[in-house]
Amino acid sequence: MKKIITLSVFVFMLSCATNPFTGKKTLAFVSNAQLFPTAFAQYDQFLTESKVVTGTAKAEMIKRVGERIAVAAERWLDANGQQGYLKDYKWEYNLVNDPAVNAWCMPGGKIVFYTGILDVAQNETAIAAIMGHEVAHALANHGQQRMSAAYIQQGLSVVGNIAITDAKSRQAFNQYYGVGSNVLGMLPFSRKHENESDKIGIYLMAIAGYNPDEAAELWKRMGARSNGQAPPEFLSTHPASATRVKNLQAEAATAKSEARKFGVTQFRPIKNF
Ligand SMILES: [Zn+2]
Predict the structure, then answer these.
(1) Which of the four pLDDT bands, split at 50, 70 and 90, describes residue 152?
(2) Gap from CA of 223 to ligand 1 centroid (Å)
(3) pLDDT band at 171; cut points 50, 70, 90
(4) Catalytically active residues, by annotation
(5) Distance between CA 23 and CA 41 in Å, rounded?
């Protein structure tokens, strides 16, 4: 009992971080300073175990889109009084040769796209929609909140020291961030987190000069993929519901006016690969 009380006090002390995107206090049991080095090491490890595509037009496109989204995120955060928010980020964007329909962003801006998702994306603008959405999860620390909640649920004390080095912890970490290509191994984000990331993501793509109308189109294609063949990994954590498509269609107009504030009045033409 005493242990539980002690843990709760720690949770209270450490968890009250204000989310700059919602202005609300959110659960952030694990700090960036603790999490980023672990994430960076995990990312490097993942890359050594994967077939990283380099030097191709597609690999270059992933980097180009990633850089534009990162710049958009910085401009947007600066304009919203969050200067320095990204100072510890070490952005990296890699394409790996893997048929899984998946993409993810680890804490600190470590991004992976799987070649399997390119078929569904079909064009660079849709890549920007996925990139914006994944970056939004990372910016809003959604994975972190999910990890924190799980630690509390399990009554685990990780205060002051989270060393994700053993195989079991590593597996858990990957689950919370959607890393890996095993559908069953990935935990879904909450609907609230998904809505938040859809909204921030579509702003970021528009500010980066990509037509936000394409976001809803992408999710329509995702949804079509879930019929018949094995459902894409991405869909196990990102249901392509009619509500989602409708919300994105409605949000596109707001994203365009948001982009105008940054001087973006025209978008790149949408051309299939
Ligand atoms: Zn998501």
Answers:
(1) low
(2) 14
(3) confident
(4) 134
(5) 31
